[in-house]
Structures are given as structure tokens and as C-alpha cells.
Request: fold
Amino acid sequence: MAQKHELPKLPYELNALEPVISAEIMDLHYNKHHQGYVNNLNAALEKYEQAEKENDLAAEINLQSAINFNGGGHLNHSIFWTNLASPSAGGGTPPSGALADAINQDFGSLENFISQFNGKTGPIQGSGWGWLGYNKAKDRLEIATCANQDPLCKTGLIPLLGIDVWEHAYYLVYKNARPKYLEEIWKVVNWQNVAERYQKAKS
Ligand code: MN3
Reply:
């Protein structure tokens, strides 16, 4: 039996990101939504293991979409929580060093990057994610969007920073105003974490 996936420990308190993201949003998002992806992923993988034992290819194929959705949800949120931090813990402090240089080279400036990121992520139809990813083959940063819970790895980019634009990520505070949420979220982006992911992706 393969090891069960588990909800990773949240690296801060549920109210740490207030007022940008309320404790109520965090509680539902982390304890209910993310836990749900983990539970459903484990259930799908267990069924998949059974299907493998029975050499039931039709069942294996039918389980792919549940594994993609819930596995993607688990991967995406596990990155997302670490991409954020309270301002008192460095959230919103602009990047420095190699990551800042790369952002300046590939987007002109941090302001331009944020403007391009929000310009692409805001109009996602329905649910999805905006990402800053690293293109290893071209040694450059790229902005990408993914629908639903599709993980960025399907594009070939290495995920550095993901912003969840499912309504559950912002609706309780921002209602229908996704652009306002995308304007505010940068106050709690943990650029130190993004920089560590960038360094690891490059090495
Ligand atoms: Mn979410």
C-alpha cells in the first residue's frame, strides 16, 4: 500500500494574512478545500491500486481525471501556502538578488511583472491559477495560467509562485471583485520563498 498523502502543516496561523486574506477564508480554504483534495486523492489512488491489481485498464483510465484534479489541487495548494506570508514575516517585501535580476530582465520591472501577471490571471474563465514559472530550457521566467486544478508541471514550467483565483480563495472578502484581490495579494507574497524555489529550479 502506497503512503497516504497528507495535508501539509500551514506555516503560519489562520489569521496571519489578514486583512488581505481573512482567517475565515483560510480556515475553509485550508481545512476544508485542501483537506478535501487530499482525501479524494487518497481515495482515487487506492482505487487505482486496486484496478492495477485487477489489470482493469478501463477503471485505470476512468480514475485519471480524479487523480489529475485532486492531485493537482493538493500540489497547487501545497505551493500556494508557502508562497504567502504575513507582512511581519516578510510578506510583500520585494525580491532581491538573482530573482529580482531575472524579473527585471524578463519583465522590465517588478511593477511590470505584477501588471502582466494580473492582466493574464484576472480574466481566467471560471476557476484556475496564475503562475510565475521557470522555463529551464530557455533559462527564463514565464507567466502562465492553468484551468481548474491542472498543475503547472503539465506545461513543462517549474512552479515558483501560484495565485489561486478560484472564488473560494477570495469571495468572502472581495465578493465578485477578483481584480481587487489580485491587487491586494502582493502585500502577502513571500518573495523569499519564491527566490528559494527559483534557486532550486536553476540548479
Ligand atoms: Mn483553492
